[in-house]
Model the fold of this input.
Amino acid sequence: MTRLIVAAGGGGDAVAAAMLHAALYGDEDQAVILTYAWDRLLIDPVPGPRGPNNFTGLQHLTPAVWTVPAEARPITPAGSTLPRLAAELPHTFALIDPHHGVEGITRQLEELVSHLSPESIDLLDVGGDILARGDEPTLKSPLADAVTLAACCQVNAPIRLLVAGPGLDGELPPDELRGMLGPLVHTFTAKDVEPVGPVLEWHPSEATAMLAATARGVRGTCEMRDAGLPVPLTDEGPTVFEVDLDEALSRNQLARAITATATLDEVEAHSREICGYSEIDYERNKAAWLKGQPPVPLGSQAVLAQLDQFEAEARSRGVTHTTFRRITEALNLNGSLREDLRQLLISSRPEKYDAPLWRITSTAE
Done:
């Protein structure tokens, strides 16, 4: 049997989709994971999501849907984690192309449903920002989720909306989400993390890293992103809830507004109007700023001294853990150095590694 899982926001949602598939459906069923190639500036220096024209080596699955095999490559200067995911995981990764708006993704979904006749279709969002109205002050990245939600609501097939790790994306507080969550579908365990454990050693996702860490029993407060958002790591962290798809759409103002869009530019215009910004504009501005920054060398002693100062300040804020993306940006290092930094820290202070997070406090504390 074939299962179709739509990774609502791309990035780490695709890894969480692989974890979900193994936990709920096992190894006997095949999974097609439909996901964005949108890895933000740490991996991809080009703002916004990538489309089929940004890759070589893609394979046609349907007229509107391309799969990303292990041998596919993003065309420079673009970057993508999808080919490596395809190389390390047994699933088929298909590319969401938002450049034709919600109408284009709806067409992709309809073709997949017709071609695959999937046993089930899940729309998975880690964190729950897919349930945002659009005006919340903590909301940072509503666009991708709104587009997939709007498209899924137009497909003539039963689609189940799942929210994993409520609040772990740092966008909506768990207290705001609880009233919208339906039945508990699953609680991830350390065993569930095993199939994607090696991927989490290199993948830059923060929300899915925290999802896995909480499944492994990590508790505390994790600081994430360049803004240093504090995210509670609690017993709710590894949970997966079903949410009514129509209720999510009625709540999500941006998703409702973009239903008839045929271009990504139209989607962005609605996002600016409803949310006050487009997250791709934020990436454009940040990419322009990063181009003007001189490269900072990765000298081990200097970096460890900076880390000590960062950790001391984080402890004063009540932080117990952080992500390697957060450390990379807090130390003003180029995103391309994230993996080298991670290796340096783990080799220098292995006792501080709460895979896949970095522990701020010592065991004694």
Remarks:
- The longest helix spans residues 300-316.
